[in-house]
C-alpha cells in the first residue's frame, strides 16, 4: 500500500474527520475491555458467594495488607479497661466486704458486751431464763406460784439485775394485762446477783390472784376464772410462756 494513502485521505476528508474515526476506534476498544473486566468480576463474585454458602472461607486477597485501625475501641482488646476492672472488682468483693463488715461489727459488739472480769454485767446472750408454774390448774382460792430460774453460760462470773422491774414477770389473759411484778414496787427494785457458770439463780413468784396496775392505793379486784399466760422478760431476754387455768 502506498504510504501516501492516509495522507491523501486526510487531505480529502480533513483533519477533524480523521481524528473522529480514531477516537471512535479507541472508544470501542475501551468498551470491550470494560465488558470483559465486568464479566470476570461477576464470575469471581458468584464463586465467592457460592463458597461462603457452602461454609468455605474465602482466601484473602494477596494485595490486601491488614493494618491496625486507629478507631478500634480499647474495650475490644483482650485486656479489660481500667473502669471495667474496677467495676468487676467492686462487684466481686462488694457482697463479701459487706458481709465481713457485719460479722466484724457483730463480733465487736459481742466482745464489748461480754464480761472481761468477774463482776462485769452478764452478756444477755449468755443468759437462759425459765419460768415454770407450780401446777397447770388452780382451784378457787389457791394462789398460783412460779419458779423463775436464771442461768449463765459464760465463762466469767458476771452480775445481773434480777429485780422485779428489770426482770419482769407478767400475767395476761388474751390482750388483757392482768398482773406484773413491775407494778407497785417499793424502793428502787434493784437486786444485783452474781452468777457463776451453770449455777442457777432461783426465785419463787407468787400471785395473789388480784389485778395490778399503776394505781397502788386503790382496792385491787380479783381476777376471774379462765385461761392465763405468764412469762418473764428483760432487755434481750424472754422465757417460754407458761399457760395455766384459774377455777
Description:
By secondary structure, this protein is an alpha+beta fold. The protein has two domains: 4-51; 121-246, Sandwich (Immunoglobulin-like). The protein contains three helices and twelve strands. It has helices at 4-13, 15-53, 82-113; strands spanning 120-121, 127-133, 137-138, 145-152, 158-161, 168-173, 176-180, 192-195, 201-206, 226-234, 237-238, 242-246. The strands form three sheets. Strands 3, 6, 7, 10, 11 and 12 form a six-stranded mixed beta sheet that branches. Helix 1 (4-13) crosses helix 2. It is rod-shaped and about 150 Å long. The chain starts with a helix and ends with a strand.
Features:
six-stranded mixed beta sheet; 2 domains; Immunoglobulin-like; single chain; 247 residues; three-stranded mixed beta sheet; alpha+beta; disordered N terminus
**Could you tell me the strand content as a percent range?**
15-25%
User: CATH fold name of the largest domain, please?
Assistant: Immunoglobulin-like
Largest sheet: 6 strands, mixed
| CATH architectural name of the largest domain | Sandwich
Shape: rod-shaped
| Backbone structural class | alpha+beta
Task: Write the topology of this structure.
Layout: H1 4-13, H2 15-53, H3 82-113, E1 120-121, E2 127-133, E3 137-138, E4 145-152, E5 158-161, E6 168-173, E7 176-180, E8 192-195, E9 201-206, E10 226-234, E11 237-238, E12 242-246
Helix pairs in contact: 1-2
Task: Please outline what is shown here.
The protein has helices spanning 4-13, 15-53, 82-113, and strands at residues 120-121, 127-133, 137-138, 145-152, 158-161, 168-173, 176-180, 192-195, 201-206, 226-234, 237-238, 242-246.
